Amino acid sequence: MDPLTSISLVANIAAFIDFGFKIVAAAREVKGSTTGTTATNVNAETLAISFQAIAANVKQTHLTGDSTPDEIRLIKLVDECQRLSEELLRLLGSLKVKKLGSRRHVLGIALRNFIKKSQRDELEARLDRCRNQLQLEIFQRTNDKSLERLKAIAETGEYQANELAVIKGSLKSLQSTTTTTKLDSTSLQGLNTLLKLCGQAFESAALSRLLASIGFEKMSDRLENIADAHATTFNWLLDDSDAVDPKATLGDPKSLEAQEWLRYTEVQDAYRKRSRDSLTLWLSEGYGIFHIFGKPGSGKSTLLKHLLKHPTAHELLQTWAGNKSLVKSSFFFWKGGSDGQKTLSGLYRSLLCSVFKQCPELVSLIAPSHWQLCLQGGNVELTDSEARSTFLDLIGRDEVFTHRKFVLIIDGLDEFEGDDTGLVRTLLDWTRLRPDGIKICVSSRELPLFQERFSSYPKLRLHEVTSLDIMDYVKSTLEQNEDLSATIDHNLTLRLGQRIIAKAEGVFLWVSLVLRIVERGLLQEDHPKDLEAKIDGLPTELEELFKVIFKGIELESHPIDRRRAMIILSLCLTRTKHYLSDLPLYQLSFLDEYEADYNFILRIPGPTEEKDDKERLRRCRKQVNGRCRGLVSVTASSSPNPEAVMPPTRRAEFVTITHRSLLEFFSRTEVRTVIELQTQGFNAIQFTCRSFVAQQVTEPDASLVQEVHLYTDLTALFKMTWRTGTMSTPAVTQILLDLEIIPFLLSPVKVPDQKRYRSGDYAWPFLWRRGCTSHRLVTAYDNRTVADLIIFLALEYGVPELLAPHGALEAGLLAQTAQSLGPQFLLIRAFLNLMEMPKYDRDGFDHLKYDRLLKCVAMCLRDGASPNIAIAADWKQPEISPEKDSMMETPATLWEILIWSSLCGWDDLDAAPFKGRQRLSSILPIWVLFLAYGADIEFELKFEPHHSVVVYQDAISVIGLFGEEKKDLFTPLFIPRTENVVVDMASKQDGLLSFSDVVGLLFPDEFPKLLPLINREAKKAAPDKTRVFDILKSFGLDLEQWSPPPPAPNLVLFPEIKGLSISKVFLRNMYPCYVDDPERGMVVYSHYGIELRDPNNPELKWASLID
C-alpha cells in the first residue's frame, strides 16, 4: 500500500468514526422528531454509504499476500469499519418514520429505540475500540514514510499521476475531522500535522503545474551546461583573501622567471583590486546595471554562474537587500538553443518561473486565475503575451517590493535574437521603474551598442584581469595530469604559463585549447624550447587558433586517429544542429568496435561489470581529448540525479562542442567539406542506433533502466534519421531490426517516483482557441515496456514499416507488440500525433513526417480501426486525466474531433499565421480516409443569432450537432456578426448547415470527388470496395501506390472566433477555463455556463464555480 493511500484511509476512517458516534447519539433525538431522521442521521448515512464504497475499493486493491503487518492491521480496521457502517445504516433504517407526521410511528420508533439500547451500547463500544486503533494508526502515519512522501511533495512539487487525487481526498476528510472531540490531543495533533502537510503538498503540486505551464523545454540547459569555474578562479573578485598567492605559483623564487612573474603580478593586483572594489560595491550597495564584457571565451558565462551560486556574492547582495528578502533570478541567452533560449518571451518565462518558485505567495496575487485553475488540478497555458504582461504586472506592483528586492543575472546579451536596442531599453526600464528594488548584472561581448548604452554604469572588462586565474589553471592542469607527473616541474609550468598568458589576452577558451597542444607535446617529450616555440607560433585570435587546431587534426599522421576525430566532430555537430541531446560518452565508446565491424552488436558477450564500464569510459575519454584536441569536451551530466537508478558510469558524461563560438567556425563550407570528406562511408544513423543497442545489451540490470533515458536516446535516433534525410524504408527497417536485439524489449521500464507524465504520453485535444490545444493522455505506470516505448515513438514520427512488416521484422517482438496493441489504439496515437502537424517547427512544415503519419493512419483503418470510436480506447487502462478517471464518460470520437478541429481552426496562429482567409491545409486527406472507412456523416451546424450567452450577444453562436442523437459535444463557437458567406448560407436554411454543406464549403474543389462517399454513408449502403478504392487512388491515398498531394491552402470558414470552444466532457469533469478577452475581461467557461468575471476578485469567482 503506498504511503499516501494509507493517509487517505486514516483520514476517511477518522471522519467515519466521528460520524459513527454522532449516529448513535442521534438515535436518542428521534423521540422529538416527526420524521424519525435527524439532520445528523442524514449526514451520517451519506458518509456511511460513501465509506462502504471506499472500504470495498481499498480492500479489493490493496489486500494482497505481500501486505506488511502495518498494512494488515490497517486493513483489518477498514474491515471492522465497513461492518460497522452496515450496522449503523440498519440502525438508521429502523428508526426512520415511513409516514411523515405520524405520531403512532414516532411512538413506535421511540419504543424500538428503547429496546435497541443494548445494540447502541455495543456499537458505541466497537466504535470506541476502532477509535483507539485509529489513534495508533494516526501515530504510525505521522512517524513513517507516509510523512516523508508528503514532505517530499511539499518541498519539490513533484508527484505521481495518482497522488494529487489522493491528497485532495485526504484534505477533504481531514478538514472535517480535525475539530472532533472524540480523539485524544495527541491524535488531534497528528491529524492537524497531516492536514497541514497535505495542504502544503497540494499547493506545491499546484505550483509545479503552474511553473510547468510557464516554462519551456530546455529552459535551464544553458546554465547547467556552463562549466563551473576552476577551483580558485574568480574567487578573488568577491574576497581578496580567496585570491591565489602569486608566490604559490613559483618554482625557484630566485629564478629569472619567478622574479618577472612577481613584478607582473604587482601590476595585475592593482587592476584586480579596482575590479573587485567595483563589483563588491555594486553587489552590496549599488543599483541599476553592472556590465561584464569581454572577448569570446573569456569566461563571462562562467563568472555569472559563479556569482549566482557563490555564498559570498549572496552575502553581499543580502547586505543590499537589508531586512528584505533577496530574490535572485537568472537567464542565459543562447543563440544556438531553442526559441525560448534566445528570445524575450523566454526571458519573461524564465524569470517568472524563478520568482514564483522562490516566492510562491506571489502567485495568487499576480496570476490569480491561473493559480485557481491549478488548484483545481488543471493545466493552464500562458501565451507569450500573457507571460510578458504577467511579469510586467509583477514588477509594477508596489506590494511586491514591500518585503523583497530582486537581482537579475542575465548572460549573453549578444546571443539574443531580436532587436538589441529594444532588449537594452527593456532592461533599463525595469531598473528605472524600481531603482531601489531591481538591479541587473548583464554580460556581453564587446559590441558598440552595449558599450554605449551601459557606459554610465559600473563595468568589468573581464579578459584584462584574469592572468593569475589563467596561471593557476595552467599549473593545476599540467601538474595534476597523471601522464605528465614525471616530466613536469614548477619552473617549467611557470615558463609555459607566462608564455600562454602573454598570448591568451585573457581568453580562457584559448588557454584551454592551447593546453591540449602543450600536453600533447609533453607526452611526446618535446624539449621546453620547442614547447615555447609552439606556443609563440600560435595565433592569438580564436578563429585563427581554431584553424590551426583543425588543420592539425586534418593532417594527423595516423589515418585512424584522423578519421575517428572527424567522426566525433560530425556526430556532435549533427546533434547540435538538430537540437538533439548531447552524445553519451558510453555510447561513443563503441566507435572503435563499430569501425572495425559494423555488425559488432551481434558479438557482444552480454552484461558488463561496473569496473569494465569505468575502464571503457576512461579509455574513450582519453581518446576524445587526444584526437579532437579540445574542439569537443567531455562534460558531466547537466542534470545529475543522486537517486538515479541507472549505473552512474553510463549516464554521467556526454560529449559536446567545447564552446558556442566554435559553431560559427564549423559552419564554414570549407570546414564542413573536410569533415564530410574524412568521414565518407560512416553511417551516423546506424552507429547511433547500434551504439544505443550495445549499451542496452551490456546493461547489467535491465530492471534499473529508466524510461526517460531510453526516450531521450530513441528520440535523438528518430529525429536524426529525419533531419538528415535518411528516412527511407530500408533505413527504418534496419533500425527496427537493430532495436530487436535489445534483450529486455518486453520488460517494464522504470519510472522515477516524481514523474507526473511519462515520455511518449500522447495528447487529446479538448480546447480550441483559434488553435488546437491538447491534454496529456496518461497510460498505466506499471506495465509499459521498452517495446511499447519504441512503438510510441515510431507512431510519433511516422514509421509505417512497423505496421506492415516484412521478412525478419514480421516475426520480431516489435511487430508482435504492435499487433497486440491493435489497430484502434495505433490509430488513436497516429491520428493525435498527426493533429500536431500543422504547427510549424523551426524548419517549417515537415512534409515527410506528415506523409508517413498519414500512411500510418491509412494502414490502421485498412486493418480494421474505425474513425467512429471514442478517443479513450481501452488500452492498459488509459486515463484522460491523471486525477480523474471518469473524464471520458461521453467522449468525442476521432471523427468528431477532426470535424470540430477543422471548423475551429487547426493551425497554431502564433506559429503559422493565416494569409488572409486561407491556411495551410493538411486535413483533406484525413477527411478522405475517414469517409472512405465509414465515418458517421450525421452532423449539422446550427447557427443561433439570438442566444442566451450574454457575454457574446454581439456574436452569432455556432453549435455542432453530432450523430443521430444530435450530441452537443463542445461549447459553441462565437463568430462576429459581419458579412460571412457561411452565415448567409445558413440563414437561408433555417440556421442549419448539413454535413454536405460543410464539406462543400471546406473543400469546394474536391467536393465532387467526395460526394460518392457522402451519399454512400447517407444511404447506409454497403461499401462498394472498388469505388472506394478508386476514390482513394484519385487522392493518392492508395497504399499500393502511395502519393498524397502536398498540403495546399484552403478556405477558413471562421477566421475570427471569439472566446474558446471546449469539450463539454472536459468541463464537466475537470475544471473551468477562461480567456482574457480584451473587449470584455475575464470570460470563464464551466459546466454552469459562460460568465464574465472580475479578474481582480478571483475568490468570488471560484467560490461560485467550484465545489
TrEMBL record:
Pfam families: DUF7791 (PF25053), NPHP3_N (PF24883). Keywords: Repeat. SUPFAM superfamilies: P-loop containing nucleoside triphosphate hydrolases (SSF52540). Residues 562-696 form the DUF7791 domain. Transmembrane segments: none annotated. This is NACHT domain-containing protein. Signal peptide: none annotated. Residues 278-445 form the Nephrocystin 3-like N-terminal domain. It comes from Apiosordaria backusii. InterPro entries: DUF7791 (IPR056693), NPHP3-like_N (IPR056884), P-loop_NTPase (IPR027417).
